[in-house]
Amino acid sequence: MIVRLKEVRTAAGLTQQELADRAGVSRKTVNTIENRIFTPSVVVALTLAKALDAPLGALFELSD
Amino acid sequence: MVDQVEVEKRKALVSARLIRHRREGVMLGCLAAGALILMVMAFQNPVPPLVAMVALSLSLIVLGLTCLLFFDLWGRRDADRDALREAWDRDQVQSAEALQVVVMAAFGLLYMTFGARAAWQIALQNGDLVDWQAAVVSLALPAVVIKMILSGKRVQRRPGAAEKDADELTIHFRRSAVTWSFVAALAAMAGVYIAGLINAPLATAGMPVVFEISALTAALRYWWLDRQASRG
Fold it and tell me: To bridge B62 with a disulfide, which of A28, B35, B160, B162 should be the other Cys (CB 3.0-4.6 Å)?
């Protein structure tokens, strides 16, 4: 899976903590998703997309 | 204006609680020191073996309870400090929990040592009531650690707050810790089984070691994942 969370977050001018606060998750959750340690559920992925005001496909994409 | 007065009143209450926590911490320290002194005396003084073993069992129980109470106190103190700063970092809760399980599991090594010795005596048909006590008590800390790792809940540190559902990341960490713990337990059991084939009492004496290895692996894996998540 291709994860573009970090790119979208930095483009939005947000820190990990700010995004975590907006999405109601911990900073560690954001950090581990960005570093591909943790694959989030659909609920968390949609929550992050909503917090960044971006479509889900902009954050996560299936690789070939 | 009224709100400001309320806030000041709440801060004063929290400050008073912090002072009380410090006193409780000193008392717990004294209790732990007393238990350690009792343990040392039980080994050094020429007292009857039964008295020594009773003193030892008592020391272990007091030390275990002190450890649990200390972490509860530490959590409440942190929560009050956060309240004073008017900030709340949920990451801290997980890090505190990770450190707590590691310390508990490390502390369990002490229980394991006494438990294995007692189990050895029991397996050789030389065990008395105190050996039975030590053997059973040795299961306490691994049980507490595994219970914490298996729990789907997260203890809140705010005074009086109810437990909260653990978030996805915590559950992911716990699953990984349980998997590692299971593999470690199987490996340890295989070792104990082979040791038991060679010398049967070793199979019984090795069981506290199996439980401790299982708990320690779970705790260390959970702590390592938490450290990894904290970086970056």
Answer: B35
